[in-house]
Amino acid sequence: MLMPEPDGQVLARRGDIVAALRAMVLRESIIVDEDELRVYESDGLTAYRQLPLIVVLPETTEQVSRVLAYCHQAGVKVVPRGAGTSLSGGALPLADAITLGLGKFNRILDIDFANRCVAAQPGVTNLAITQAVEGEGFYYAPDPSSQIACTIGGNVAENAGGVHCLKYGLTTNNVLGVEMVLMTGEVMRFGGKHLDSGGYDLIGLITGSEGLLGVITEVTVRILRSPETARALLIGFPSNEAAGDCVAAVIAAGIIPAGMEMMDKPAIHAAEDFVQAGYPLDAEALLIVELDGPEAEVAYLIETVEEIARDNGALTLRVSQSEDERERFWAGRKAAFPAVGRISPDYYCMDGTIPRHKLPVVLNRIRQLSARYGLRVANVFHAGDGNLHPLILYDANEPGELEGAEEFGADILRLCVEVGGVLTGEHGVGVEKRDLMGVMFTEVDLKQQQRVKCAFDPDGLLNPGKVYPTLHRCAELGRVHIQRGQTRFPDIPRF
Amino acid sequence: MTETLKPETPDQLCEAVRWAAAAEEAFEVLAAGTKRSFGRPVEAGHRLDLGVFAGIGLYEAEELVLAAGAATPLAEIEAALADKRQRLEFEPPDLGPLLGAAPRLGTIGGAIACNLAGPRRIKAGAARDHVLGFNAVSGRGEIFKSGGRVVKNVTGFDLSKLMAGSFGTLAVMTEVTVKVLPVAEETRTVLVLGADDAAAGKAMSAALGAPSDVSGAAHLTAPVASASGIERVAGAGGAVTALRLEGPAPSVKVRARAIGDLMKNFGELDELGSADSAVLWREVGNATFFAGDDGGPVWRLSVPPAAGARVAAHILDGIEGKVFYDWGGGLMWLALAPTDDGGHGVVRSATAQHGGHATLVRAAAGVRTRVPVFEPQPAPLAALTKRVKEGFDPLAVLNPGRMVAGV
């Protein structure tokens, strides 16, 4: 993965930059020693590592503003970072950039049950928001599997999903307000406690912008009343096709489950070996369908889904009889990544989305690719919304295996796009899928997206080298080629 | 001389936009034109009619996805969805009658461009939350796309969000892909009679804070309720607070009982079934109650829900008018007595004090030119907005002035 060439002048000015930063933040908030910088050298995508120039850990919006204004003026690049759980290298440092860590922004600022929202600093973890309101029977719906560690600021930057987003939406559907500092140091507030801010939907744009537009310093999210009850079905199928048909039939029956997850045989075995969730080992595919709501509704829907599953050739079927059992059903799925980590020295997690009915085709092609690359693969799948997580098993100590895994992964993502899907469903483009953007977008599409970045960060100092494969200068992107005196086309009908 | 260009292909559309850019001309962009009076009057010499970009291109019910030309009538889309027992979950309102146009002519592109949403906004989101992708021509005269046809997608900036609510000022959408969802098997509406605005606000907050999955929470003050086409609402003899429950029949029955129990201290109760509910919630979403009025100013305010009653009191202290609430108190529709500024002064002082934003949905063209239609922005946000616009439409070819003078 080629990152932008470090700016030698910036590297040479490191001492001056540190001295300048010391006037803006506490001395202990600046990390310069190599040993301590090493903590920040990668994020959740550990295949890529790079020591940052300097790490700064500001504590207030005012400090963020001063640091960014200084960097803007001094031409120093900045990489924002939350908990560093990104699986796409979104927080991968650059040799000539300051990594701006938001870890000290860890306070919940306002819990407002009357307006059903919570305002929090960006470094608060996803789970901490739910924990802060669950005593009153509320929760924050998006639940990425890293929710114990990942931060709400990072969730907004990446538009994080989770197993319940089929029914309750992604981060973008649950954010009401954002405070963000632009690269110039300007502090902007978008939205608030109300819905649909007036003017352009800049919150919608910022959500999922992967740290390319600004540094988030406060987030207001909607909270929901927790459902009265939730129960899950654990269904084993003789084939991926049968499981896929069952998923389609559930949706066709007008049911949107709270979660609908699928695992293939290798993933079932890895998970069962790890947590003994009671998964059927003879099944080729496993479905977990969760239904939530009032008891009467859940009972009714469970019955309907049971019937649909049997009609679609279910081999085994269990309905959770207690909260404990429901959690056990989920335990294997939630531990699927570490479970796979146990059976292989390394694994590479992919994140494409496909139209759901293409699942059998895609799984077959993945199997063929697996044979060709000589690398095993286990698949977990957010079946309800078509988001596929193939886990490619490899050993980084074997020469060529990492490269093979990367190529295999790229082939899978190309396949996702080919069947009408996309490169990434919830993990982000980051550096990982940057060079595949051309598979999905034309040069014109990509330039149009980058013009939006220019409106926020005209010098391209925020998180460069992420998301977009080719960096263009904003002056070049802004140029309009017009031909004056062009004749007025006779072909277009007018009235 | 004003001309209306009606391009037949995306290439012709590009050509038209490029010509305007070169000739320093501008277009008012429209399809059915039912919402032409929504926003500031456009400062353009010509019109760009998108009528040709119509028709459903793809509809896969089991994938919950539909793609259509931007000018496809919502009525056509809703009919196709109804055949498969599906719907647009954001409940796009038909503002035609409110704005003095005929009903049922609005298009999917128009609903998205104005980021409309009906009463289900509180549960299901607005148009913005249902756009999966689009094809468009920018003000630079270039064809581009964003998003896709799947729900889970974080590939690149989410320009669909930006298009929703941009009132055609950034790019001309030719095709849109939206998420669709199953129709609920049954609907019931619990009515609470006679609550004043403040009590109704508390009642709606309690209902939305209960685990009953309320999908609509509206409060009609007495003069508004009396204009309903539903006899049980119009004849209630006072204010009516309505709470909607949708879903499988056994569930709706249980939840309606739970909400009834929760509401019994707020007033006398009544209940509507599926058919009457459909009519009532359409009236609420379309602001039908104000459609027959004399064309005086109508405002739509989005505020923190618990502040709703206070905001309305603030405004109606200063100027004569009628109000009703949707979104659990977070959305207010106000019909005000005509004044020179359409109520701008007092409405803006209310949002300044309580938060949120206000949009002047209906007013005479003169008023919409004189006062800001959308919530005025602080200078840095206004500057950022202008830079975003310039990134798509640097020469201000598309709907210039529709949202803000000079943008």
Task: Tell me what you see in this structure.
The complex is a heterodimer of chains A (495) and B (407). Chain A is an alpha+beta fold and 495 residues long. Chain A has helices spanning 8-12, 14-22, 34-37, 61-74, 126-133, 152-158, 165-168, 202-206, 240-252, 265-275, 295-311, 323-334, 336-343, 359-373, 401-418, 437-440, 443-456, 474-478; strands at 30-31, 54-56, 77-81, 97-101, 108-112, 117-120, 138-139, 175-181, 187-191, 215-222, 224-225, 229-237, 259-264, 285-293, 316-319, 346-349, 352-353, 377-382, 387-394. In chain A, strands 12, 13, 14, 15, 16, 17, 18 and 19 form an 8-stranded antiparallel beta sheet that branches. In chain A, strands 5-6-10-8-9 form a 5-stranded antiparallel beta sheet. Chain A has a 4-stranded mixed beta sheet with strand order 1-2-4-3, with helices on one face. In chain A, a hairpin with a 4-residue loop joins strand 5 and strand 6 (117-120). The longest helix of chain A is centred in the last third of the chain and has 18 residues, at 401-418. The N and C termini of chain A lie far apart (54 Å). Chain B is an alpha+beta fold. Helices cover 32% and strands 24% of the residues of chain B. Chain B contains 14 helices and 18 strands. In chain B, strand 4 (56-60) and strand 5 (65-69) form a beta hairpin. The two termini of chain B are 23 Å apart. The model of chain B has no long low-confidence stretch (mean pLDDT 96). At the A-B interface, helix 8, helix 9, helix 11 and helix 17 of A face strand 1, helix 1, strand 8, helix 5 and strand 10 of B.
